[in-house]
Structures are given as C-alpha cells and as structure tokens.
Specification:
Layout: H1 13-21, H2 34-40, H3 47-59, H4 87-102
C-alpha cells in the first residue's frame, strides 16, 4: 500500500490546527471520480493497495516528507527575498497563479499573514 503520514506528523499541532481551521486552503482536487474508481477496482486482488490509492485520492497523498525531525521552524516567510524586477517573469507568474486558482488547484490569496504550520 501507499504510505500514510506517520503519527509524528500529527504531533505538529500548528499544522494540524491550520488545516482544521482552514480546510478551504487544502482541497483535494482530482479529475478521478473516486467512487467510480472504487467500483471499477472492486475485484482487484491487491485490496490494501487499492484502498491506499482511494484514501490518497479522497484525503490527499503523503509526500513522504518528515517535517518534524529537522528542527525547522513551523513557518518561514520568504516573501521579502523575491525580486520581481523582470516584468515578463512577473506576468508569467501572475498568469500562472490566476489559472491555477481558477482551476481550483491552488488556494486563493488568504492575506499577508502567513499561517502557522
């Protein structure tokens, strides 16, 4: 089966609380109709794998990151490090952002305050 988050990730209370209080920022977007997918694979012999894929499609896939062992802070704001002197690059990034937000793959702007976690 595909891996699920380890229990230590749920000890990251800042991230868990941010996800719980702002679910609109963490939508699961997939073109796959999960229930139809489940129906099509109902006779698949590797049930643990199928169920892990269905869980990933429904709840999100674990990127195999270990966010708790590195000692990194819960949040880092890199916004002042970006330089947008090149108008062409800036327009490309703005257009890309707008397209991704419109298609529901990125969350809309939630303000200047970086959320913890």
């Amino acid at each position: 089966p595909l891996p699920r988050p380890p229990p230590t990730e749920f000890e990251n209370t800042a991230a868990v609380e941010t996800i719980a209080s702002h679910p609109e920022l963490f939508k699961i977007v997939t073109p796959i109709h999960v229930e139809r997918f489940r129906d099509l694979l109902r006779d698949h012999p590797n049930r643990p794998f199928v169920e892990s894929v269905i869980a990933g499609l429904s709840e999100g896939f674990w990127p195999l990151a270990d966010t708790r062992s590195s000692g990194a802070p819960d949040s880092v704001d890199y916004s002042t490090a970006a330089s947008w002197d090149d108008e062409e690059k800036l327009k490309f990034f703005q257009d890309t952002r707008n397209e991704e937000v419109a298609d529901g793959r990125w969350s809309p702007d939630f303000g200047q305050d970086l959320l913890p976690g």
